[in-house]
């Protein structure tokens, strides 16, 4: 579990939780627990996605994938345990109000399940070698990647107390950067090498998976990522929250990154 969740990595999802909590004036203890929980879910999903029964990858975050290092059975169990630990972290005996615990658990569970990450991965596996139109590709990426990033923002916001209009604006921000993240991932898969990415480059093309680059082309995909970044900034402005500097910076980093 430590091998999978500690060490290298962008920590984008926990950073989004903490930045949104700061913008919402949120409780520090709850926000930090939510940040840890969402990273545990992310790490478990990578461990399982990399296994031979799914993406069959051997490199993650610049080192051998979990199943390569410890074997498939231990990798599966470590992923299961990280998923369970995420919800354990969200439900301490003291320090976080029960109603907030329930809200955070609901947001994380829904983002992780059939209408989120797990469902998106199922669509991804079923789409290998099949043509997808842009709407279908967007739905797959929204579930597989976007919803958990959006939930990270909403979990941070839940730790504070903001008007409904501001919460809706943060939700739009999360949706925009969630999709932008996957669009940029598709771009990097064909423009960077494995040493920079920290994972195997060219896997989507080699596996004949539909991506934004294969559906739109490289330059249109880059332009789309920039439009999504602009949508995220517009949503932050619409939130009328005073302290969104970190959220604004993270939106830029999502699009400008090279790994």
From TrEMBL:
GO molecular function, one term: metal ion binding
Signal peptide: 1-19
InterPro entries: Isoprenoid_synthase_dom_sf (IPR008949), Polyprenyl_synt (IPR000092), Polyprenyl_synt_CS (IPR033749), Prenyl_diphosphate_synthase (IPR053378)
Keywords of this entry: Isoprene biosynthesis, Magnesium, Metal-binding, Signal, Transferase
Gene Ontology biological process terms, A to Z: terpenoid biosynthetic process
Pfam family, one: polyprenyl_synt
Cofactor(s) needed by this chain: Mg(2+)
GO cellular component labels: cytoplasm
NCBIfam families membership: FPPsyn
Family: Belongs to the FPP/GGPP synthase family.
Descriptive protein name: Polyprenyl synthetase
Organism (species): Roseateles aquatilis
Highest classification ranks of the organism: Bacteria, Pseudomonadati, Pseudomonadota, Betaproteobacteria, Burkholderiales
């Amino acid at each position: 579990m430590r091998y999978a969740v500690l060490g290298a990595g962008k920590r984008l999802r926990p950073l989004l939780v903490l930045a949104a909590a700061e913008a919402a004036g949120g409780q520090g203890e709850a926000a930090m627990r939510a940040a840890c929980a969402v990273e545990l879910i992310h790490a478990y999903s990578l461990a399982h996605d990399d296994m031979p029964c799914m993406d069959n990858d051997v490199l993650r975050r610049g080192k051998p994938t979990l199943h390569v290092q410890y074997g498939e059975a231990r990798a599966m169990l470590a992923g299961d345990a990280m998923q369970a630990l995420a919800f354990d972290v969200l439900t301490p005996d003291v320090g976080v109000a029960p109603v907030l615990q329930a809200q955070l658990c609901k947001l994380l569970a829904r983002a992780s399940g059939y209408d989120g990450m797990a469902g998106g991965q199922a669509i991804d596996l079923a789409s290998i070698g099949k043509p997808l139109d842009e709407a279908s590709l967007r739905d797959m990426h929204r579930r597989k990647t976007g919803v958990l990033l959006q939930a990270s923002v909403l979990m941070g916001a839940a730790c504070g107390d903001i008007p409904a209009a501001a919460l809706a604006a943060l939700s739009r921000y999360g949706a925009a950067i969630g999709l932008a993240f996957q669009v940029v991932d598709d771009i990097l898969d064909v423009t960077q090498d494995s040493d920079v990415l920290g994972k195997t480059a060219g896997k989507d093309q080699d596996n004949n998976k539909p991506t934004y680059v294969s559906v739109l082309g490289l330059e249109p995909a880059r332009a789309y990522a920039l439009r999504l970044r602009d949508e995220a900034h517009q949503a932050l402005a619409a939130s009328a929250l005073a302290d969104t500097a970190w959220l604004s910076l993270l939106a830029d980093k999502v699009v400008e990154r090279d790994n």
